[in-house]
Design brief:
about 210 residues, alpha/beta, Rossmann fold, 6 helices, about 40% helix
Length: about 210
């Protein structure tokens, strides 16, 4: 009996500690929350989760670029000053980083397209129609901009200008810190002449600090 009673005395603290640990883990378990306007977490999307491009970064880059574009002489004279809204198309933006950014590149294209449509100053070719025509004339998905291919495609689309460019990144590390500087470089090219009518580069930095 004494041995059994001693064993119970030894087991009791272990059981208590196990119960406390289980309750602690249950209390720390991840739970899903909804963020955005009208929720209890309106700023959920603002904190950076990693140094990879996210929606906030893409929105910033596109907004910054569009602000420069709309204030440029090209936009004011050739776009706003045109007798009718010019037709524009978006050539696939090249991912020139070492990262896999397939989802982010689609988001970037959609953001550029939406922003241009909302200027009410240009008519934007639907990207699905553009992709269909590109396949018909043998242009590969994600092909780097080529003036002769662009002219063939541009004539079929009825477009006057192509937006094209690339995302680049400089990745730096020192001790336990890491910084990635992203650059979005975009050009507006007049299809018939292959002249660059506007170009600009905008930047966004992400960092991991300890």
């Amino acid at each position: 009996m004494r041995g059994s009673r001693g064993m119970h005395h030894r087991l009791a603290p272990v059981l208590v500690l196990g119960l406390v640990a289980a309750l602690t883990l249950a209390g720390c378990a991840a739970r899903a929350v909804r963020g955005g306007e009208g929720t209890a977490h309106p700023d959920l999307d603002r904190p950076a989760m990693s140094v990879t491009l996210d929606r906030e970064d893409i929105a910033y880059l596109v907004s910054d670029y569009l602000g420069r574009l709309e204030s440029s002489p090209f936009w004011q004279q050739s776009i706003k000053g045109a007798s009718a809204p010019p037709i524009v198309a978006i050539w696939p933006i090249q991912n020139a980083t070492t990262q896999h950014l397939d989802d982010q590149m689609l988001m970037l294209l959609s953001s550029i397209e939406t922003s241009l449509v909302n200027t009410n100053s240009v008519l934007v070719v639907d990207r699905s129609r553009q992709q269909d025509l590109a396949r018909e004339i043998g242009i590969q998905q994600g092909a780097v901009y080529d003036s002769s291919s662009a002219q063939r495609l541009g004539r079929q689309l009825g477009a006057q200008y192509f937006f094209t460019g690339k995302i680049t990144a400089v990745d730096e590390r020192i001790n336990k810190a890491r910084r990635v500087q992203y650059m979005l470089f975009l050009q507006v090219i007049e299809i018939e002449t292959s002249l660059i009518r506007f170009q600009s580069e905008v930047a966004r930095s992400k960092a991991l600090q300890r």
